[in-house]
């Protein structure tokens, strides 16, 4: 559904749409609410090969021929600017720490690219917190309660995989709020 409607890659009816029932694919490794300037907040992602689909069933990504270089997602870091409003924090690569997979700033978002492991697709990356303030980490959309959309492009298949989940530590608005002192 996302691919057909957003990139003009064909009629939605030409694709089999797989709705994946996923939860807690991405989490904060050190979910403290208070950090110090210079700390690193680590984001961990683990997408298992086999996930349940809606309304019932499962999908095994090993059988779908997913191109591992396309498995990823975007998030954004927001900072409170006043009057309970938040603005996107522009990051440069010097504030990114890569451990497993890739993480890099791309305009106003952070792009995470997973690597294929024996268990599925994984990413572990951190953001160096270089300035005091109140922050939110969430999907790359400013609209509240928007889940993270995961990109899994099946190579040569007529499948649309709709995989989305909230950050495991997010509140009811889909945000993970923390303070840097």
Task: Walk me through the structure.
This protein is mostly beta strands and 181 residues long. It has one domain (2-6, 27-180): Sandwich (Immunoglobulin-like), CATH 2.60.40. The chain contains one helix and 17 strands. The protein has one helix spanning 2-6, and strands spanning 16-19, 26-28, 34-35, 40-48, 50-52, 58-60, 72-82, 85-88, 96-100, 102-106, 109-113, 115-116, 120-128, 133-139, 148-151, 159-165, 176-180. The strands form three sheets. Strands 1, 3, 7, 8, 10, 11, 14, 15, 16 and 17 form a ten-stranded mixed sheet that branches. Strands 2, 4, 9, 12 and 13 form a five-stranded antiparallel sheet that branches. A two-stranded antiparallel ribbon has the order 5-6. β7 (72-82) and β8 (85-88) form a beta hairpin. The longest helix has 5 residues, at 2-6. It is globular. Residues 1-10 have low confidence and may be disordered.
